[in-house]
Amino acid sequence: GQNIDQPTEMTATEGAIVQINCTYQTSGFNGLFWYQQHAGEAPTFLSYNVLDGLEEKGRFSSFLSRSKGYSYLLLKELQMKDSASYLCAVREHNQGGKLIFGQGTELSVKP
Amino acid sequence: KAGVTQTPRYLIKTRGQQVTLSCSPISGHRSVSWYQQTPGQGLQFLFEYFSETQRNKGNFPGRFSGRQFSNSRSEMNVSTLELGDSALYLCASSWGQGGTEAFFGQGTRLTVV
How far apart are CA B18 and CA B64, in angstroms? Predict the structure, then answer.
């Protein structure tokens, strides 16, 4: 079966760097997605990793290690607007576009 | 380029009724997936449609069904509504089943009373 774990909550300071971890167990890995979701809004696509390594996109970076079943999302130069829920989702082989989501990490950015 | 459009945005229904939700994917995208989001269960996969065919189905009862039209627009239907069906229903659009991006619509907030 599938299992995706993320911390439930994190707090960080404006201007700082925060790393949100995600560990997963799947039958056949075929990609990992990160989404940002503000309260009452739809999830917004942030990044996609399928090969090991770091993908950088502006202030956001995402890392994947397939052998460890591990990913992290790195947010730099935190801004108040980064306060949101961050969702890790995994796609498996032979499952088409189906995504299995973790419960999300609620990030609070304090001044 | 227009994003994923879901209608209606909000809906209130009574138990036992049925409801139909609509999703128009990004132009050129052929895969539409539906998810249910609740505070307790998070985001859970309902089903996926590609080229008018259901390609995958989650663990939901048969009261939940869907379809996709030739223009890739998709609808999902929930019959005999229960209080527990109250949730945010989201659809995700991607170019293909193995796409590197999947974009969500704003969702339909369904409240069953």
Answer: 10
